[in-house]
Amino acid sequence: MAFLQTLKASVGSFKAGKCSQETKKELENKVEQLWYRVIGSQVQFSYQEQEELKEEMFRTKLLINLRMLKMQLDIRGIQFGGTDTLVVDFIEEVLDSDDKIGKSTEKGYRCMIENYTLSHSNG
Question: Which pLDDT tens digit goes with each residue over 45-92?
């Protein structure tokens, strides 16, 4: 539950420009969907359901990190290069889908997002 509260606060505290409001709203909706899935169920989750929920939460966190990076760069007028744009768009599409991805792929995406964040943090 603390994880979801952190995600919600993270998205809620982001000051989005007019063009980024739609993205911010999408992210808020994703976090709410997870929140209601956890809170709305008074049943104890099976091990498999817990694993799926963890994967979904981690995936949502990565998607939020990626979209926030894109919004921050957009606000600062910074654009990715051609290849980076393709990679970032591909990662975003995969994270936004319901398709299963392995733990090593998730870790790879997380590292790529962190690298993009670090390389673009100083403009």
Answer: 788 887 888 888 888 888 888 988 888 888 888 888 889 999 999 999
pLDDT interval class at 18 (50, 70, 90): low
Asked whether the beta carbons of 65 and 11 are under 8 A apart, the reply is no
E strand segments, 8-60: none
**Helix, strand or coil, per DSSP, at residue 123:** coil
71 closest CA partner among 2, 13, 6, 17: 17
What are the CA-CA distances from residue 93 to residues 30, 53, 64, 82 (Å)? 14, 19, 13, 17
Side-chain-side CA neighbours of 56 within 13 Å: the count stands at 16
- Please name which of 66, 74, 57, 69 lies closest in space to residue 8, comparing C-alpha atoms: 57
User: Which candidate, 121, 110, 19, places its Cα nearest to that of 65?
Assistant: 110
Tell me the domain boundaries of the chain. 19-120
Torsion of CA 65, 66, 67, 71, to 10 degrees: 100
**Contact residues for 123 (Cβ-Cβ < 8 A; gap 6+):** 76, 78
